[in-house]
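Example A, followed by Example B.
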Amino acid sequence: MTAPALRTFGTTGLEISAVGFGAWAVGGGGWSFGWGSQDDDASVAAMRYAVEAGINWIDTAAIYGLGHSEEVVGRALRDIPAADRPYVFTKCGLVWDDADRMKPARRRLDPASIPHECDASLRRLGVDTVDLFQFHWPDEAGFAVEDSWAAMLALVDAGKVRHAGVSNFDVGRLERCEGLGHVASLQPPLSLVDQRSVADEIPWAHAHGTGVIVYSPMQSGLLTDSMSRDRIARMDDDDWRKTAPGFTEPVIGSVLAFRDGLAAIAGRLGTNVASLAIAWTLSVPGVSAAIVGGRSPQQIDGWIGAGSLDLEPSTLAEINALVGTHDLAGAIR
């Protein structure tokens, strides 16, 4: 197995592997955007395997499993010698209801709450400092983004956070934050199915020295060799994907047909659909790295090769032409 290449992460000074371990599914089921049941021992084994294979960062969030993902990541970190521990990135700003775990979280960037959310994440992770702390989504509760960002920058000054970033922000919000203090990173969705961030947000980040770690490069598993209608039918009832637009008719037919076209290209290159889809995101100018979920060492084996897969211009042109032959817009959640 070839270790993923290292890439410069904006102006942070960090060199991160081209693919990172995404711990969304590690949170398990029983909440509104869970991926169904997940064994914690398997999650720890997957993270340990990923680090041994050369992945040097893990991305999680307080909301994943309503704190559980961070706890499991913390358990995995304790099993890894300090000198070999990966960077840990997490997020705040989604507030859940402990009395109703299936109730969707509120997007709330309360400046007074942000320090407490950081402390809670640090406790769950078992660390004194988090390498990257991010706003998960823009605020919907009426707080000015400048006030929220000031609270985030104060955490950097206090030494609890090494670098501050945002996820799912548009250019307008990015500009407002940058006016107060540098936005070290941006985490937007990006895949062959969902290319919206290519037009504005990623170029803005590239121009401002902001690192970009993209999420859902496999479109939540749709762009994999193993995805099928039967697999969707067998998903746990609390797996959010089971009723998502991209996983239901009639959209799933178009997506699977597109995936089959990718499979033909991947076969010629001696790789698989997942690695091809991830490598495409890594080819986009301004992208630092891609977050990829994993539940087991076997799943990691299925995509880690993307971190060292360089796509020729002719291959990229063929892939982009294939996108144009399928109606994929309905698969974006």
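Example B, a separate protein, is given below in the same form.
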Amino acid sequence: MPSVQATAQLVPAGGQGAKTITRALPQEVPLALSFNAVTHAVMLATPADLEDFGRGFALSEGIVATVKEVLDIDIIEHEDGSEVAMTLTARRAAALSERRRSLAGPTGCGLCGVDSLAQANRAVPRLQKAARISEAALRRGLAALPLQQELNRDTGAVHAAAWIDLDGNLVALREDVGRHNALDKLIGALAAAKTDFSRGALLLTSRCSIELVMKAATVGMPILAAVSAPTARAVELAQQSGLGLIGLARADSLLVFAGTPLAPA
């Protein structure tokens, strides 16, 4: 279950008439991501859409190039958490093993399972297609976003990542306590549906940090629009990769930080 019920004291302004209420809270559990029986990362995540999460993580971190290279996914429940156990093709498993052997220093810097400073600054491919979306279509997608955030409507405590087509129709949405986890789940779901990543836009309800731009650019998403602001490094990477980056996307305005993602009116 992605949420649990908890009791809390509702204290109104002034402290008068406090009462006990029941409130839904999102779950946050340890989740191990393993490839060919070797643990690659341990995340704290919402226990939903875990196959999407594993598939999307493998793609967005450059572990595989296509979902066909993930041969199998098993969700294994352990006493202290869950495991997304993935089996890769022999070629991809060997490449991952070599990548781990070449790491400098200990594991666990905390950036999306990244094992070294070099990995935190890994290069991403420059996008070949610079899709554009009309402002009207983008605003249609943004308006539809909160209507589909079921877990956040219940808890008020999770992020969402959504994909819209170039007409502004919301195609898919995933939620998680971690913003990068939500994006990985979305990428995994879209890849399973054989979505063309070059024909749409990514919407995020969170601030836009560099790892989100890195994941989007790695899988070929040409446009990223976040309701909050990006970091300076996120803007720099978006410019280098050719990704159109929009921040502070609100009802009355938005800011284009990189590229030319908006089609002429």
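On Example B: The two ends are 44 Å apart (CA to CA).
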